[in-house]
Amino acid sequence: MAVRKTIEVVPRARRTLTSLRNLGYDLRHAVADIVDNSVSADATTIDVTVHFAGTHSWIRIADNGHGMSPAQLTEAFRYGSDREYTRTELGRFGFGLKSASTSQCRKLTVVSRADTPDATLAARQLDLNHIDQADKWEIFDLTPDELPEPARSALGEASGTVVLWEDLDHVLQYQDPFGGWAKRQLIACAEDVDEHLGMVFHRFLAGEVADRRPLRITVNDTRVEAWDPFCRSEASTTALHQEDLEVHSRYGNGIVHLSPFVLPHQNQFSSPTAWKRASGPKNWNRQQGFYIYRANRLIQSGGWCRVRALDEHVKLARVSLDFFPELDNAFGINVAKASVTLPEDLRDALNPRVSTWCRAADAAYRQKQPSQSAPPRRPRPSRTAPTPQAPTPTTASGVTGPGRKDTPNIRPTTPSPPLANPRVPAAISQLPETAPLRTRQALEAAAAQAGETEGLIRIVSALRAMSPEVARDLGW
Question: How far apart are CA 57 and CA 185, in angstroms?
């Protein structure tokens, strides 16, 4: 077979870098991506500094990790840098350092010293102004005397890495960058970064990650506090049944671990302060739903990933969903590690489970738990359809839905307990026998007989949105 002639086509540096600056990062996600590298370098302390000085403002992320040799540092500046990632590392594409940094600044300086005997200090700089002029993939090899002062003073004689962002053109977008408005906005950005890091790395901060010492992060010398979405320190938080689902896809196989929680009603929290803190950065309604973790690092905080809509009545439901990098492609992880897409068959398997979790959250929200003085419940009328066993998400072959080679197939790896009646959006046993209850029972029975249970669930959801008082009267 003849060897075909090839021609190497090198991307134009100026135009390519301009495009790569717009990969979907905001400031908090960009900082978190740099912190990912520090965590992968086994750092135990990471200090983030946001310094305002008008057009000379800068942001610095410094760690005490194992650092890099000069050759490793040069390779780290290559887009798509070539190295092996372990299963628990937070990096993936070899783009994070460059794409996260240039999404916020025009000048990136990295100083590093490896934790090896007689290691030398290495420093490299990427300057977009130089690349605009030269239109070449070039970086500067800096001597210690050429280092910007914020980078020179941070590392000292220890091992570790310092990342410095200068010329913050995507952060300080103001006509008067020296004005009070610009300063207040940069301070607000620092507070936003603090809150985001406390949520994204809360397992690392709390020392919950196996074989790792607890992580310490500061933002402008203030220690970042871990934010636990599931309020496990609250005595009234309810942990529901945990479960593993096995995911098979053409991209790889892996396990998804589910840990659902129902948070306490407001009046059951230990204090008003605890209740307010539990509301999270996006507040209660938008914080309900899935908390998706990749290698213990939070990727998505809240939302139901199109499994169901947000609902005031189920805002106490939060579900931890864990996977590791072997499922990255199946979940569609992007470069910024800011969003995921649930595999379609996993979504199908989650549907009945989400209904069960939300019924429990609805009951907690309404506080319909029967008291000791409550009268005994009357028997349910015989016309009400019997409670079925849990609908299983798998067939006998362990495949959900039609067998497709291009989408993952899901099967539980541990047996699940029977689910509550999927026809009943809330616990009927918690209501006394009333006319609205009989109406509701008749509707549910009729829907079951007609094979329109799913239709009734959709109607109930719409009724809650359009006429919440009527839905409440019916116990929905």
Answer: 12
Rounded-to-integer distance, Cα 22 and Cα 100, Å: 10
Residue type, 96: G
Question: How far apart, in whole angstroms, are the C-alpha atoms of residue 59 and residue 34?
Answer: 12
**CATH 3.30.470.10 matches 13-223:** no
Nearest to 436 by CA among 444, 420, 454: 444
Output the DSSP codes for 145-202. GGS-HHHHHHHTTSSEEEEEEES-TTT---S-TTSHHHHHHHHHHHHHHHHHHHHHTH
Q: What six digits make up the tokens of 355?
A: 């209904």
Phi, psi angles (nearest 5°) of residue 100: -65, -40
Q: Which residue has the higher pLDDT, 439 or 380?
A: 439
Question: Contact, 448 vs 385, CB < 8 A?
Answer: yes
CA torsion, ordered 151, 19, 13, 60, to nearest 10 deg = 0
DSSP state of 265: P
Pairing mode, strands 252-262 and 317-323:
antiparallel
Q: Does domain 228-368+404-420 have CATH number 3.30.230?
A: yes
pTM value is 0.75
C-beta of residue 430 within 8 angstroms of C-beta of residue 363: yes
Q: For residues 392-408, b (16+ Cβ closer than 10 Å) or e, as one string?
A: ebbeeeeebeeeeeebb
Pinpoint the alpha helices (H) of 295-401: 328-331, 344-366
What values do phi and psi take at 330, rounded to 5?
-65, -30
Query: pLDDT tens across 241-300, in order?
Result: 999 999 988 877 899 999 999 999 999 999 999 999 999 999 999 999 999 999 999 999
The pLDDT of 119-124, averaged and rounded, is 94
pLDDT value at residue 383: 37
**Domain segments of the chain: what residues?**
13-223, 228-368+404-420, 426-476
Place of tokens 């009927």: 428
Nearest to 164 by CA among 115, 92, 112, 223: 112
